[in-house]
Description:
heterodimer; A: globular; B: six-stranded mixed β-sheet
Amino acid sequence: xxxxxxxxxxLVQPGRSLRLSxxxxxxxxxxxxxxWVRQAPGKGLEWVSGISWNSGSIGYADSVKGRFTISRxxxxxxxxxxxxxxxxxDTALYYCAKDLTAAAGTxxxxxxxxxxxxxxxxx
Amino acid sequence: DIxxxxxxxxxxxxxxDRVTITCRASQSISSYLNWYQQKPGxxxxxxxxxxxxxxxxxxxxFSGSGSGTDFTLTISSLQPEDFATYYCQQSYSTGFTFxxxxxxxxx
Lengths: 123, 107
């Protein structure tokens, strides 16, 4: 059974940093691209960032480019999101999501999701 | 970024009804269109990918169609567990944007 468990969320002041983690199990982690998708309270979904299976291809939404850094450790079956210079508009539930397509492909289709970790940016 | 719109934003329907939700892209996205279902307090669930491919384990009452800029999600006979919010998402170009959602509730 595929499981994605996010952690690292919390209350943080504007301008500060936070690092999210996602522990994956139940599938061959290093075969798949992985993504972060967020949802502000009561709002819709926004793709934040994605990383290919070998970290060779990385992408970011314009809203976080230059502030957030995605990474992965295939030996630890883990995905990370380093969030710097946080703003109030970054307040959201952050989901870790698995890409549908294995190996060299990246479909940007999210077939499994974690339950999310809440990030609140407020003074 | 490509803008995604959905209509209606909400609808009320009864069990057994046929329900159709429309998603429109601001430019052609070929068939790079996916549909998700989200229930309150839960993570989204993939229903349809590549416009019309049914994700494994999803009931066959769900179907998708369309290409280019106009797409539809159809639920052929609404079941009690289908009351939820539905999102479309384009996987054609960076931004990989979602639609604003369509909430389906009980009439």
